[in-house]
């Protein structure tokens, strides 16, 4: 296959990409459709960076380099600029995460109400530290700033759902339930 | 003029600057990091804290801590730099910054000229209380120019502000956040911007350092420096190269080039070709000895017709040979013919002219190129136009660029144009009463870019994002378009222009915009190799000048460092290589034999090889003076080693007509000396004793110092009468002393040459300049034009420049050392509109116009011998537009066979969305394809396309 | 007389009022009234009512709106942005309002947008608020269908498009100028002022940023008038406010109460007082970036100026309680970690000072504290004081530190002298009992 720009005219001030702009993966039609919908709300395509990252991440779980290049190409902003935005936000994952991401609230009220203990419990149970993923790829544990549910502390968000008034027992149930749920799904 | 009080002292200041800039220009020391004189304030580092008091009477007013760089100067304002709260705060900031900064100054290349070191000292912070772990970053590979050591980062954001905001690069940015913030690329890879080298100077610590310098690093204080002029294009940026004795036995060695502030020509920044091209001076291809051809013919497969074998001789022997020829010429038994060069000084060219006589002196340029220069010169002499300085270019409020790929042919100008694009935004800021130094505030206003129109055969990537319109057109159409713009501006009838609709409409918009602008700017040059475009550009400018009543700013780019200076030595329509060939061809066979003296010029880059051969064949003798071995040296009977720009003193004239002087930074190795000096030595050689004083060549006997030649030029050449005033002569003294090239800390004085002799040698004398080659002399003549080692107590980095400016961003206190030529003014001729017929007939299917394509790295003759630049030069490719490629089924990688009038050409094709339809881009200036230079201009048809071998699918 | 305009539609179950129910309860009446008024009159009315921003700074909302350039020469495009980035530790009021009564916010936004002449509005919502975002999007669709917003609103040529922008976890986005950068797809770094957003904000256009709760105050204010609104407050400030209490109280939660309700009343009557076995040692009146108040300050009315004069800030009005079994050093460490992690990385004292503070607090909490550490902390906190840093994040981060050093100095000293955290076992025990 031939590329459209002269890859060999190495020259500065020319579009000579020392980071590939299009990687192996392209955006799917659906991903593109979702991003396109956002264009209407922003003054230029370049403003949609975070939206695009977030939308594509919903499909792919995380943003790989290839995904980043594909988005950057689609939006017409450089990979470095997109990376600059991606790395501003803790919910954009530039590393693979498990099927379930556990966002354990670590802020003041939950801390007063014992989130450290819960964290300890989770770490023991899942054998992972914050930022890590279980070896079976099921769970990723993340420490999260205040989830805005302080009157129901301690709390944890799993994926998109909130779990409140947590105790060790509730955590055990939750993990069990998620495990069997995910196993069910993979059996389908 | 606001009156202010700082620490009890009263000052009257101009109020244009913020408080920090005001303090600095008053000579007061106030530390800072994120502020930059050319980039303004963003208030990120919080280092420049100062106390502001409400009023003087209030004794127990504790005052308020403000950031100097974010605070406008108030009339009657009372401030304190020395107040305890401010000093404590500033010390605390340094302490904060140091929590992550490694304590690696001894192994850091910034050490000794480090702004962070200076500011740490200045803030008085000495003891570190932080005991935690420092964070560690992984560094990136950023290409052959720049090293990356992220752990030294203090997050002042200057790098991205320069690289992204100022220079428009999109491959370096701040990544991450909090104290993990990282300045780099998305992945390892070469920095794509052609101005990346400025990061070295912009970064206040050792994060970005010069990789070429690393390979032969010495501390700043060990570098020997002198003011120089970049020889890699015709912008004429001022530089401060640094050299140092080299222990491998090569004598002095050029170690690096940094920017040398000149308000009008380059300000704080230079391009990467200028910064990293210097290594040609250290190349193993340097000619260091005198060579003479052996008499036997070479038998061998690679040797061409007339090739010679050489052996070294001692200079007197070779000079005797040259002197013999000079004497013979004087007696009429021989004819001397001199060929000059646009890449060497006026002094060298003039000396050769003087030696051979003006009628025997040729420019070393072909008729087309010399013609372009002479036309350009003609336009510049028109009183309705004027050549702008960098600040004037930055101030333009509407710009038209006509087929000049300015970011590759005069990069620094393109960087200035990027700033011009912000003028609407700046005007908006002023209407909101936001001072222009509030950089972040001004930038966040967004809004439209000031109108920049680019029309030509190649789109500009560097300016593409800020250009209002970037229209692709064939050279013929561009010329016609420009002519129509001129007619519209002048209010003349503009109905009959056979242009495509798009260009017709564009010409109206452009004419309208330019006419309504208060500071319009026209840019063009020799880059297109098209006389018509140049003429039309001149017309547009002249019409604008007439319409507005003020001379129109017009920047016309010349190809080489001294192109315009060289052109001054020839009357119009004379002095080209074509003339020379003609002349030689019609010489009688019985006329005396010809000795060709070739001055620092590779003719194979200027003419087809056959013509060069013909030229050499018709001469009995070829004498070459040059810096590097080049194809012509194979044919030379005598070769003299010529000094490179940083080894010599001389004068260049840049594209804007500014005359500038450069001084030797160090002495060339071996027998290297300036070309003019070889000629003088020959005239002074014993064999020339009989040369009568009437002979013009005898004038050379009078020349002892470089300045003698300069003065002779000033006396002789119209337009250059003020050349000798450009810089002081060799007898200039400060307090009775010469200026030292070395700093007072320079080390190794007795050790440097100890491998040759243990006793300390007497210092080399410099007869040419007011400099010494040692540390003896005035150390810090910053207030004269001679100081290139910018240093002031407490300010070891290049930031010290503000100590030597007339206000922030003003001229250098000692003068910038550039003077504009005083050419005889005269209106340009009323050149006819370009032949309408040519463009009226749309180009035949299958017929293409060949146009030159320039590369920042690859088109510069000398810089191609710098390894770092050679690494990026790339191979020759023909650029084809997308539509033409589809029409002819051309893919990138295919071999394109072209039928030209002069023969057949086969070259790999590259499909590019930057090319106009109907043209093919031919690379110009590449080291390994000199034959392509003389192809243009030409038309060609595609005779065959050889598709690339298909890669196998795995 | 209506006394709970913000929460009157919020029932016990976790559902949101749909547009039908919302309108039955008088919803969008304020909006209809507004459309009959001139924008200038609305602005004056809001200013007159003394509504102060509920995002934390307490700036008069009508006054803020009035800075938007008006008249012929003013830029035609303006924007309204609702700041729903609620990430302040201990704050949980905007979530409640958005999840449970999304139309109230939309109505408030419609009126605000009309008043400043913005035809496009954004709800900048933090990425973790999935439910709120979904309900808002649903409500926008409902309102559009009923032509309350959108391209064609009957009887007016005003148009309004509201878009929900989901962020992705970055506290600094709550700072209004960083928020604007984030919305524009740039790095979330605060901007230099001037220009103020009202003059040059989103994409360089005049922009007003208001907090969710602020905007929720607007509909009834328009409907029921200035006098009614002013009378809602018990002390100097007008209106009601969603106050909340979290920590070891019997009944943590959020309640809409008059401005100026005394802290004691909120804690004792509404939150049910402290749990058995624990005593109140201090409190953060409005989130993690406010100064601690002590037990002797419980009778202060929750009022912007009163709390300000007492040395703290009203902030978000959601109170975090520190009890006597919880280590104050630990709490301050927890908050400092949050702020260090959320520092945007722009200015030095915040970016490099906070991580340093964290290392010091960590060693104190571990029992490795050193003499001089407390002075070092004080010095650091002072360096992050208002005006010394680029934005208000760092002064906010310094607030709990410096106030804890005053209020709980003994605890810090004990950590140093004992070489361990005196609360470690205690904390364990209480936690188990809960
Ligand atoms: C670090 C920081 C975080 C903030 N976070 C929020 C926030 O999450 N929500 C909010 O409404 N205001 C927040 N603010 C205040 C906003 O900057 C702004 O003042 C507010 O949105 C204005 O709305 P209001 O006038 O309606 O209060 C924050 C301020 C700072 C300095
Ligand atoms: S190459 Fe040209 S623009 Fe670059 S530094 Fe040299 S003179 Fe300046
Ligand atoms: S120089 Fe003033 S804040 Fe950086």
From TrEMBL, chain A:
PROSITE patterns: COMPLEX1_24K. Its cofactor is [2Fe-2S] cluster. This is NADH-quinone oxidoreductase subunit E. [2Fe-2S] cluster binds at residues 105, 110, 146, 150. It comes from the Bacteria. It comes from Microbulbifer yueqingensis. InterPro entries: NuoE-like (IPR002023), NuoE_dom (IPR042128), NuoE_N (IPR041921), Thioredoxin-like_sf (IPR036249). The keyword Coiled coil does not apply. It holds the Pfam family 2Fe-2S_thioredx. GO terms for molecular function: 2 iron, 2 sulfur cluster binding; metal ion binding; NADH dehydrogenase activity. Belongs to the complex I 24 kDa subunit family. Binds 1 [2Fe-2S] cluster. Keywords: 2Fe-2S, Iron, Iron-sulfur, Metal-binding.
Automatic annotation (TrEMBL), chain B:
CDD domains: fer2. One of its GO terms (biological process) is ATP synthesis coupled electron transport. Residues 223-285 form the 4Fe-4S Mo/W bis-MGD-type domain. The keyword 4Fe-4S applies. InterPro entries: 2Fe-2S_ferredoxin-like_sf (IPR036010), 2Fe-2S_ferredoxin-type (IPR001041), Asp_de-COase-like_dom_sf (IPR009010), Mopterin_OxRdtase_4Fe-4S_dom (IPR006963), NADH_UbQ_OxRdtase_75kDa_su_CS (IPR000283), NADH_UbQ_OxRdtase_ferredoxin (IPR054351), NADH_UbQ_OxRdtase_Gsu (IPR010228), NADH_UbQ_OxRdtase_Gsu_4Fe4S-bd (IPR019574). Residues 85-124 form the 4Fe-4S His(Cys)3-ligated-type domain. It comes from the Bacteria. GO terms for molecular function: 2 iron, 2 sulfur cluster binding; 4 iron, 4 sulfur cluster binding; metal ion binding; NADH dehydrogenase (ubiquinone) activity; NADH dehydrogenase activity; quinone binding. It holds the Pfam family Molybdop_Fe4S4. Residues 741-773 are annotated as: Disordered. Its cofactor is [4Fe-4S] cluster; [2Fe-2S] cluster. SMART domains: Molybdop_Fe4S4, NADH-G_4Fe-4S_3. It catalyses: a quinone + NADH + 5 H(+)(in) = a quinol + NAD(+) + 4 H(+)(out). NCBIfam families: NuoG. Composed of 13 different subunits. Subunits NuoCD, E, F, and G constitute the peripheral sector of the complex. This is NADH-quinone oxidoreductase subunit G. It comes from Microbulbifer yueqingensis. The lineage of its organism: Bacteria, Pseudomonadati, Pseudomonadota, Gammaproteobacteria, Cellvibrionales.
TrEMBL record, chain C:
GO terms for molecular function: 4 iron, 4 sulfur cluster binding; FMN binding; metal ion binding; NAD binding; NADH dehydrogenase (ubiquinone) activity; quinone binding. InterPro entries: NADH-UbQ_OxRdtase_51kDa_CS, NADH-UbQ_OxRdtase_suF, Nuo51_FMN-bd, Nuo51_FMN-bd_sf, Nuop51_4Fe4S-bd, Nuop51_4Fe4S-bd_sf, Soluble_ligand-bd. Pfam families: Complex1_51K, NADH_4Fe-4S, SLBB. Its cofactor is FMN; [4Fe-4S] cluster. Belongs to the complex I 51 kDa subunit family. NDH-1 shuttles electrons from NADH, via FMN and iron-sulfur (Fe-S) centers, to quinones in the respiratory chain. Keywords: 4Fe-4S, Flavoprotein, FMN, Iron, Iron-sulfur, Metal-binding, NAD, Quinone, Translocase. Its EC number is 7.1.1.-. NCBIfam families: nuoF_fam, PRK13596.1. It comes from the Bacteria. This is NADH-quinone oxidoreductase subunit F. It is an enzyme of class 7 (translocase). It comes from Microbulbifer yueqingensis. SMART domains: NADH_4Fe-4S. It catalyses: a quinone + NADH + 5 H(+)(in) = a quinol + NAD(+) + 4 H(+)(out). Residues 329-374 form the NADH-ubiquinone oxidoreductase 51kDa subunit iron-sulphur binding domain.
């Amino acid at each position: 296959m031939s590329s459209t720009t002269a890859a060999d005219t190495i020259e500065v001030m020319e579009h000579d990409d020392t980071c590939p702009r299009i990687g192996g993966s392209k955006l799917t039609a659906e991903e593109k459709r979702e991003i396109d919908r956002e264009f209407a709300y922003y003054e230029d395509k370049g403003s949609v960076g975070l939206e695009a990252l977030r939308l594509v991440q919903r499909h792919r779980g995380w943003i790989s380099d290839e995904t980043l290049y594909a988005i950057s190409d689609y939006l017409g902003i450089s990979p470095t600029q997109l990376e600059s935005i991606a790395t501003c936000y803790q919910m954009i994952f530039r590393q693979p995460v498990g099927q379930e991401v556990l966002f354990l609230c670590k802020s003041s009220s939950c801390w007063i109400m014992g989130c450290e203990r819960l964290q300890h419990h989770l770490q023991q149970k899942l054998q992972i530290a914050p930022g890590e993923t279980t070896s079976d790829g099921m769970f990723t544990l993340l420490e999260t700033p205040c989830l805005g549910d302080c009157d129901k502390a301690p709390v944890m968000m799993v994926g998109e759902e909130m779990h409140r008034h947590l105790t060790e027992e509730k955590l055990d149930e939750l993990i069990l339930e998620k495990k069997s749920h995910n196993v069910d799904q993979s059996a389908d | 003029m606001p009156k202010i009080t700082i620490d009890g002292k009263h000052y009257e200041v101009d109020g244009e600057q913020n408080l920090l800039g005001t303090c600095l220009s008053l000579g007061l020391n106030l530390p800072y990091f994120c502020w930059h004189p050319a980039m303004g304030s963003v208030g990120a580092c919080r280092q420049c804290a100062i106390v502001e008091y409400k009023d003087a009477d209030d004794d127990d007013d504790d005052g308020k801590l403000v950031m100097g760089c974010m605070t406008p100067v108030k009339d009657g304002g009372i401030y304190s730099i020395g107040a305890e709260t401010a000093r404590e705060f500033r010390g605390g900031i340094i302490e904060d910054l140091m929590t992550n900064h490694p304590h690696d100054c001894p192994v850091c290349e910034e050490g000794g000229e480090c702004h962070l070191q200076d500011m740490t000292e200045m803030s008085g912070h000495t003891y570190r209380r932080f005991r935690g772990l420092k964070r560690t970053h992984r560094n990136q590979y950023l290409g052959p120019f720049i090293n990356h050591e992220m752990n030294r980062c203090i997050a002042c954001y200057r790098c991205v502000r320069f690289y992204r905001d100022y220079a428009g690069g999109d491959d370096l940015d701040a990544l991450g956040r909090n104290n993990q913030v990282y300045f780099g690329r998305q992945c390892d890879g070469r920095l794509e911007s052609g101005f990346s080298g400025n990061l070295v100077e912009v970064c206040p610590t050792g994060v970005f350092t010069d990789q070429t310098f690393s390979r032969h690093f010495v501390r700043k204080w060990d570098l020997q420096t002198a003011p120089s002029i970049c020889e890699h294009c015709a912008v004429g940026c001022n530089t401060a190269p640094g050299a140092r004795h080299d222990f491998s036995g090569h004598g002095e060695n050029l170690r690096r080039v940094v920017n040398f502030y000149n308000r009008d020509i380059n300000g704080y920044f230079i391009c990467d070709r200028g910064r990293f091209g210097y290594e040609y001076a250290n190349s193993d291809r340097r000619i260091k000895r005198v060579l003479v051809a052996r008499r036997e013919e070479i038998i061998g497969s690679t040797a061409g017709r007339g090739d010679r074998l050489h052996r070294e001789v001692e200079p007197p022997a070779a000079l005797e040979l040259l002197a013999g020829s000079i004497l013979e010429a004087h007696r009429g038994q021989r004819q001397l013919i001199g060929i000059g060069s646009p890449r060497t000084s006026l002094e060298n060219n003039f000396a050769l002219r003087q030696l051979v006589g003006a009628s025997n002196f040729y420019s070393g340029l072909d008729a087309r190129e010399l013609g372009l220069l002479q036309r350009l010169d003609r336009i510049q002499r028109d009183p309705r136009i004027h050549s702008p300085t960098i600040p004037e270019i930055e101030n333009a409020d509407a710009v038209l660029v006509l087929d000049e790929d300015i970011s590759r042919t005069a990069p620094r100008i393109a960087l200035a144009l990027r700033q011009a694009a912000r003028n609407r935004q700046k005007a908006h800021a002023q209407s909101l009463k936001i001072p222009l130094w509030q950089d972040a505030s001004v930038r966040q206003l967004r809004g439209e870019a000031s109108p920049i129109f680019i029309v030509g055969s190649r789109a500009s990537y560097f300016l593409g994002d800020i250009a209002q319109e970037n229209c692709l057109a064939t050279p013929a159409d561009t010329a016609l378009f420009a002519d129509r713009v001129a007619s519209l501006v002048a209010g003349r009838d503009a109905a009959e222009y056979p242009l495509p609709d798009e260009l017709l409409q564009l010409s109206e918009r452009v004419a309208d915009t330019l006419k309504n602008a208060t500071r319009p700017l026209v840019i063009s040059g020799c880059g297109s190799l098209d006389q018509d475009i140049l003429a039309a550009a001149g017309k547009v400018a002249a019409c604008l000048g007439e319409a507005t009543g003020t001379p129109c700013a017009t920047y016309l780019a010349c190809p080489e460092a001294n192109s315009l200076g060289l052109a001054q030595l020839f009357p119009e329509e004379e002095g080209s290589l074509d003339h020379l060939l003609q002349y030689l061809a019609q010489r009688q066979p019985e006329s005396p034999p010809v000795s060709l003296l070739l001055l620092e010029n590779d003719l194979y880059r200027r003419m087809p090889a056959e013509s060069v051969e013909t030229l050499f064949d018709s001469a009995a003798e070829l004498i070459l003076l040059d810096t590097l071995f080049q194809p012509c040296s194979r044919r030379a009977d005598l070769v003299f080693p010529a000094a490179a720009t940083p080894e010599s003193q001389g004068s260049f004239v840049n594209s804007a007509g500014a005359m500038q002087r450069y001084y030797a930074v160090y002495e060339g190795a071996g027998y290297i000396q300036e070309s003019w000096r070889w000629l003088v030595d020959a005239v002074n050689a014993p064999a020339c004793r009989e040369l009568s004083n009437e002979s013009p060549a005898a004038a050379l006997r009078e020349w002892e110092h470089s300045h003698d030649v300069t003065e002779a030029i000033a006396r002789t050449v119209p337009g250059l009468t003020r050349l000798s005033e450009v810089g002081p002569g060799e007898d200039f003294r400060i307090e009775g002393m010469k200026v030292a090239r070395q700093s007072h800390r320079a080390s190794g004085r007795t050790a440097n040459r100890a491998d040759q002799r243990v006793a300390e040698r007497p210092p080399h004398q410099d007869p040419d300049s007011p400099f010494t080659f040692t540390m003896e002399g005035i150390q810090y003549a910053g207030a004269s034009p001679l100081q290139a080692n910018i240093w002031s107590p407490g300010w070891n980095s290049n930031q010290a420049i503000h100590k030597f400016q007339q206000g922030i961003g003003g001229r250098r206190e000692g003068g910038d050392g550039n003077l504009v030529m005083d050419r005889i003014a005269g209106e340009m001729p009323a050149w006819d509109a370009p032949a309408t017929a040519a463009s009226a007939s749309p180009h035949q299917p299958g017929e293409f116009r060949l146009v030159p394509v320039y590369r920042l790295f690859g088109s510069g003759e000398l810089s191609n011998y710098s390894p770092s630049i050679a690494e990026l030069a790339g191979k020759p490719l023909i650029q084809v537009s997308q539509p033409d490629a589809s029409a002819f089924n051309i893919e990138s990688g295919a071999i394109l066979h072209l039928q030209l009038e002069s023969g057949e050409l086969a070259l790999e094709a590259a499909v590019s969305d930057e090319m106009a339809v109907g043209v093919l881009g031919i690379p110009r200036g590449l080291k390994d394809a000199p034959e392509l230079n003389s192809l243009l201009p030409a038309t060609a048809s595609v005779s065959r396309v050889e598709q690339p071998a298909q890669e196998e699918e795995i | 007389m209506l006394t709970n305009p913000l929460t009157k539609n919020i029932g016990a179950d976790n559902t949101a009022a749909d547009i039908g129910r919302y309108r039955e309860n008088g919803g969008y009446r304020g909006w209809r009234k507004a459309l009959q008024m001139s924008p200038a009159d609305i602005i004056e009315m809001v200013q007159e009512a003394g509504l102060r921003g509920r995002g934390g700074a307490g700036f008069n909302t009508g006054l803020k709106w009035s800075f938007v350039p008006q008249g012929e020469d003013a830029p035609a495009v303006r924007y309204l942005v609702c700041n729903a980035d609620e990430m302040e530790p201990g704050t949980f009021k905007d979530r409640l309002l958005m999840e449970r009564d999304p139309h109230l916010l939309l109505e408030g936004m419609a009126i605000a947008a009309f008043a400043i002449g913005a035809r496009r509005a954004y709800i900048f919502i933090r990425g973790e608020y999935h439910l709120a975002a979904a309900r808002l999007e649903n409500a926008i669709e409902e309102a559009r269908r009923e032509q309350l917003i959108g391209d064609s609103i009957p009887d007016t040529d005003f148009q309004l498009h509201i878009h929900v922008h989901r962020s992705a976890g970055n506290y600094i986005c709550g700072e209004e100028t960083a928020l604007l950068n984030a919305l524009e797809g740039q790095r979330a770094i605060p901007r230099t002022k001037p220009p103020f957003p009202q003059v040059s904000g989103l994409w360089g256009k005049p922009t007003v940023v208001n907090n969710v709760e602020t905007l929720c105050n607007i509909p009834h204010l328009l409907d029921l008038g200035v006098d009614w609104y002013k009378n809602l407050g018990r002390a100097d400030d007008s209106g009601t406010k969603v106050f909340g209490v979290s920590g070891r109280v019997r009944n943590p939660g959020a309640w809409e109460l008059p401005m100026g309700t005394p802290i004691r009343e909120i804690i004792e009557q509404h939150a049910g007082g402290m749990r058995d076995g624990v005593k109140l040692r201090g409190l953060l009146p409005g989130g993690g970036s406010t100064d601690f108040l002590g037990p002797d300050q419980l009778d202060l009315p929750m009022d912007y100026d009163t709390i300000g004069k007492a040395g703290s800030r009203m902030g978000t009005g959601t109170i975090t309680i520190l009890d006597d079994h919880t280590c104050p050093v630990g709490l301050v460490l927890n908050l400092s970690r949050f702020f260090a992690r959320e520092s945007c990385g722009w200015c030095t004292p915040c970016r490099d000072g906070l991580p340093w503070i964290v290392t010091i607090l960590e060693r104190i909490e571990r029992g490795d504290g050193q003499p001089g550490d407390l002075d070092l902390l004080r010095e650091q906190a002072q360096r992050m004081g208002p005006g010394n840093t680029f934005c208000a994040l760092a002064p906010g981060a310094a607030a709990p530190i410096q106030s804890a050093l005053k209020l709980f100095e003994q605890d810090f000293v004990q950590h140093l002298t004992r070489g361990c955290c005196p609360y470690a076992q205690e904390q364990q025990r209480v936690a188990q009992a809960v």
